[in-house]
Structure formats: structure tokens, C-alpha cells
């Protein structure tokens, strides 16, 4: 039992250890290639960025549900039961009033950072506000006093009364919404005090890179579109929490269809899990255990049927009883709560999937770089063998033979130098094509598209007008991506021709140019547009003032689209600088090796008895190159080795 209780914590610790070991191995490799002069400045920067991404990698688990389904209690039970009390506040009714992220940043003290609800009146997204700490209220956490911390956490669930016009301005109220928010006795509307909360806490799991996203219910999902556009799709897992006593309600199904499923299909996380919480409401001392188990099983199967997923993706649990079982070390209660099965699912599926994504990124980022370094070392080793054979064949030969060989090699070098002169012209054409591509991706051009769309949006105060603005914006973005893609393919074709030419004419090793694909960026833009279309036709649109919601959604989309273009622009610049690096390296290597062979023959011409010393030098160089081959092979094996499987 003990081994299962902390399965998620153990797997997270193993994942962190794997990242640290891989980061250290890449760091050692970087130091080695720098020492050997086998890496360019651009490649060096890519390795640094990769090491940094390994160290700062986060695994995000998001919890989504309607109000009062027990999300916060589930967080307490799975992640924070070691405090022997509820760390996050839970009580009847609406507890999570604003999206809340639990994470750890060692640069900040333990604290809660809170973004005022009034920031919704601006056009800035939560992501943009994260870059401006001035707007946040920070409350430092007394981590030595859990009870006082619990009181501070209650700040996140505070509400306040505002008049109807301000609630409309905030986008939190629409008089026309069916079953909407009701006025209180003072003819005011209760709204959350805070728009977003970030808890920075030095819990071991959070230190290891876990981020927990606790979302409010349906209303906040519809009015804070950044949740659906950025946060949920980026999560590695989404836990959709339901209540066992009610099953899948109409509003539950609405959240599932409009947010969880769409996020899973278009986003980058590897899965979602339905958690049927509060199964303890089905426990009845007047019924047998078999009858209770049958009721839970029936409710679980019905949940799977309504949601359209497999029975194995629905986990019946009691977060409250699981928390009590952990706090009181009651293993029987913990087992009965079903919490262990959910934890094992997270540890055995979600973390390994995240690890696979990170390993794929490492292979994608530096796998080709290492292979090209291997090609350079192989070329040096081949040239060393050639020089050794040349010198050994000269043993006992006359000076005339050496001079004739020197003359032939000098002619070969002269021909190669002329070829390099013509190569300069080809490289100039390549630089021109690259310049065209980077101009197409320039942020100035994209900002002009944004400005044009904003003007049209401001001029049209109708839903139809805003919809047309979205379509125009995404059409312009897609057309730009299409032109960039064509230009990138043209550049790659030119580079392929250069690679093939030097391979065919001078025997340079076949090497693979670094690939650059816009598919990921294009898919992300298409996903954003699909989000816009789905949101526009969603029934939740009527829950708040329609114009406000569409405008805010559009602003969020534009912000995300600009980030996608900025990422694409950055990657294109890196690609344009490194795509020729492998062939340029080999061209320089070939030139250097020709010069070394000439130098060898000149020394032998000067002193025929010097052959033995030259052979010894080359044999020593050969052994060093064999060691370098071994270093590279070890690194390739390290990044390609199968991921560890937990026993």
C-alpha cells in the first residue's frame, strides 16, 4: 500500500531526476564541442536554450468543472495531504471564484499574487499582465503557519457588490441571460474581487515543475477566454470533475462539450480524465458493500456513456474521504476512496507522456546537430586514414614521386578553391531568399494586420462585424504563413542542391539540412480560429453581455496569434542562420584537410627520413578522433535511449 500512496510524487521526482541528468549530459557535451571547435555560435545558443527549457520545464494539470463539484478538495487530497489539514479553502457553494495557478518560482518568495477584477475593463490579457507585476497585489505566505496560510487563501474566494452598469462593463452580467446572476438585496451584483490568482509555494511537487490550474465554473470559462485558448490546451492533463450524486448534469455536459473535449482535440495535452467525485454520498450503512459497489459502477458506466468515453477514463473517487484517509493514515478508507487509482493513472500515463514530449524536443533540437558533429569527426578520421596511407605508400619512394604527388594535390586544392569562389555567389542568392522570408514574417507587417483589424472592429459594434473582423484577421495570417512556407521550401531546395553538389563533386559526407516546418504554427492558428467559431456559436454566449465577450475573446486571440508569429519569426531566424552550418563546416574541414595533406608532403619533401615521425603524429591523432567518436556515440545513445519504466 505504501508504495502506491506516493506514486505520483515518486514519478514526478524521477522525471525531475531524468531532466537534470539529461541537462547535465547536454551541458558536458556543449563544453566538449566548444573545446573541440565543433560548434557555431548559433548552435551554441540553441544548446543553452535547450538546457534552460529542460531545467524550467513545467507539467500542468488543470481541473475543470461546474461549481461545487469538489475540485479544490481533490487538489488538497492528491497534492497537499501531507499538511494534515486542508491547505486550500473548501466550503459549500462557490469556492474557486477566479482561475488559480499553483506553482513555484524560486525567484519569488512564497506568496499569493492577485490580479484585480477591474483589469477586465482593459484590453490586456492575463498573460500580458503577468509581465507587468505592478498591477498585482502580493500577499506573502507564512509557510511556517499552515492555519494562517489557510486564512490568507480565503482571499481568493472573496466577492463584492457592484452596480449593474459596472458588472456589464466588466463583462460579468447580461440582463438578457437566462438563469443569470441575480441582484442582491442592495440591487447590486456580487462579483469576484480578483480576476486571476497565482500561488507561489515551495511544495516538493511544485518545486519539481508541477503546475496546478484550478478553474472556476461555467461562467468564468465563458468570460475569461484565455482559459480556453491558452491555459487548457497547454495542460498535459485535464481532470473533469463531476459529482456522483448528480451524475452528468446539463451544465456539466455543456462544459465538457464546449471546453474539455475541444481543448483535448485541438490542444497539445495528451489526455483528459473524468473524475466522478463524492462517491461517499452513495455509501449507505443499511446497504451491503456489493450493492454500493454496483451503484458506483452503474453511475460510472452511465457517466462514460453520456460523455462518450471509455469506462477506463472515468475514476470514481471521494476526494474528502481520501484526504481524511491520508491525514489519519487510514489505508482502508484511502483504498475505498478510489483516490489511489486516480493517482496511479496520473503517474503512469500523464508524466511518461510529458517525458516523451520532452525527449522528442531534445532529439528535434540537437539530434541533427550531434549527427552533423559526428559527420565532421568521421571526415577528420577518414582524412587521417588517407594521410596515413599516403605516407606509408611513400616509404622507399624517390623524391620525384613525392613531388609528383604534391603537384597533383596542389592542383586539387586550387580547383577546390575556385569552386569555393563560385559558392560565394550561390550563398549570396541564398541570403537574398532568406531575407525575403524573414521580411514576410516580420512583426512590423503582422502588427499592421492587427492594427487594421482593430480599426475595423472598433468601427463595427455588431456581432456580425466582429465576426467578420475575426475572419479577415485569420485569413490574412494564413495567407502570410502560406507565402512563408513557399519561401522556406524554396530555400530548402537551394540548400539541398548545394549539399548534393559538394557530396557528388568532392566526396563530402551526406548530411541532413536542419528542417523548418510551419505546420505547427499553421495548426495553432487554425485551432485559434476554430476556437473563435465555436465560441461564437456556443450557447454560453448569452450568459454575459455579448459584444463585450466577443471583443475580449478576439483580443485574446490576437494576442495569442501574435505570440505564435513571434515564435515562428524567432525560429525562422535561427533556422536561416544554422541551415548552412553543416555544409559550411564540412567545406572548411575539407579545405583544412587538403592543406594538412599538402603540409605533410612538403615536410616529407624536405626530409624523407621524417616519415616515421609523421606516421606517429597521425596515429596519435587517429586515436584522439576515435575517442571523440565514442563521446558522440554516447551522447546519441543518451538522448535516444528508451525512457525508464517504473517497476
SS summary, helix count: 22
Describe the strand arrangement of the main beta sheet, using strand numbers: 4-3-7-2-8-1-9-10-11
- Computed CA radius of gyration, to the nearest angstrom: 31 Å
Strand fraction band?
Answer: 5-15%
Uncertain regions spanning at least 5 consecutive residues: 1-5, 540-544
Write down how many β-strands occur, each being a DSSP E stretch of 2 or more residues. 11
Distance between the termini: 15 Å
Specify the helix fraction band: 55-70%
Sheet with the most strands, sense and barrel status: 9 strands, mixed
Structural key phrases:
11 strands; alpha/beta; 647 residues; 64% helix; 22 helices
Task: Describe this entry's structure for a reader.
The chain is elongated and about 110 Å long. Strand 9 (237-243), helix 11 and strand 10 (271-277) form a beta-alpha-beta unit. The strands form two sheets. A nine-stranded mixed beta sheet has the order 4-3-7-2-8-1-9-10-11, sandwiched between helices. Strands 5-6 form a two-stranded antiparallel ribbon. Helix 2 (7-36) packs antiparallel against helix 22 (611-640), helix 17 (443-459) runs antiparallel to helix 20 (546-578) and helix 18 (463-506) packs parallel to helix 20. Mean pLDDT is 81; it is low at 1-5 and 540-544. It is of the alpha/beta class. The protein is built from 22 helices and eleven strands.
